[in-house]
What does this fold into?
Amino acid sequence: MSDPLAISAIQAMGEGRWQQAGALWQACLDGDEPLTAAEYNACARSCERLGQWALYRYVITCGLEHFPEDRPLQIRQQHARAVALMHSGSWQEAWELLESLRKEALSFDWPCGFFYWSRQARYEKTLALVEETSKRLQVLNELSLFKSSELLPQRIAGILLWADCQGWPVPLRAEFGRCVQPLIDCLRCYDQPVRFIEDPALPAAVADLAAFWQSNAKVLKALSAGDCEFFARLFLCFGYLDLYLQLRREFISALKRLLDSGNKSKVAFAYRLALANELGDSAEFVRLSEIAQEQEDTREYARISAIYHVGQPYERAVEDQDRDFAEYIRGKSIAIVGPVDVGLDSGAEIDGFDRVVRFNHRTGLSYEPRCFGSRTDVSYYVKALLGRPEPPPGLLAGMSELDYVVFIKNAAEGCVWLEQTTCRKREQQGIWNYLDNPLLTGYANAVPRALFDLLCFKPSRVKLFCSNLYTGMSYCREYLHLSSLARNGGNIFPNASLHDPVSNFVLMQRMVQRGLFEVDEVLQEILSWPVATYMDRLSAAHARFLARPARGPLLEA
It folds into this structure.
């Protein structure tokens, strides 16, 4: 039976009371009875979170004396060695060890964080022989350029190295370190996207840094391009919409400067093309497309990006596994139907299309036929729905009614129950990797992902119904019940850190301007707005989730 002190320590960890948890674990260690393997791992996790590295190594050593075959403790022992190498300045050795540890499975109960340490070691080893401040800043700017759909916690690495190059007065540097260190202490312990981190101390750590930048707005202009992008999405995730918009603007400015300096990396090329897409710079797109033809991966990236630009063909060769679906779509009229009641009686029009496409279809959804129509022929499914150990109620029955079930490649990996269904299933091409994601930041929402897919197969007509781009919350109740919005209590902003709202809005505008698909009158009005108006409406619709500045309004830089 577990020691009551250990049970209390684990409870304190779950509630983010890390100091109290550490004291309770110390009492356990001072007792006469050894801990279980799981408790040694939990105790080590607490030490990691508190940065108690000497105690961290001691706990792991004690645990391995009692449980020498315990794989999590063995991995932690290597992690502790890597951290010690970091503290001794052995950056190259630490980086090599951490890179090997990144490949370890982290499915045990108390995983440790590798990715932050690996990225920090890369910064440190690269800068070790660079002394001049301007050159260090150049290196930091180049290393920070990172194009990812997800908001990853290791992106906080290097921020204190950047601060050390700013020449700030000592009190300002000390205040920044005080505000950012709790955020580093938290994020370095996790290897999953920030929106999935449930550490109770994280919101307060973000709030402290937000307060610093609210009071020192001019500091934002000195941030590297990659750091602007990371912090913009981090503050968006926690509802600091003003800081998100400010940092996103600074990101574009810093990105332009960095690209003008001649960066030739593939990440820089991806950003060049994505920036041309967002700004509607078709001349730059054509120039970059010619360069992209030299390599297969960049050639495909340019092909996808053509969807933004008038007069540029958006097409792809039909692969063998898609031939039946291509024939099913080619030349047909397609209605794409979202889950939002926008106040229009569109049901009869929807049912008049050759093919009706919805999202996450299942039986038991109370769609009003007058508004939403009554048919469903194809449904696109998200990974969050398919990744469950058991199918949600009505899902298998709903799938059996369809002509096609469509999901992103790898979304159904390990989903045994889906493999047992008899419906026609199809994997669609993903666009989340940096060389196939044409958005400036983030990842396309479900509707544009379906459009990317369907438009390749040459339908005669496509029209989108029942979507308002999150400017209201009039969802079908049963649809919302199993969505990530429901899990977040209706809070859009954690998911918005993955699906950047400005990037997605601009993408939809460009596609409509090109005439690639039609929209109902509600969405037509929304897409006629400038970005600033859209963000105001988005803010108003989700105002209860917005974080308020701790020290007054955002200062003008």
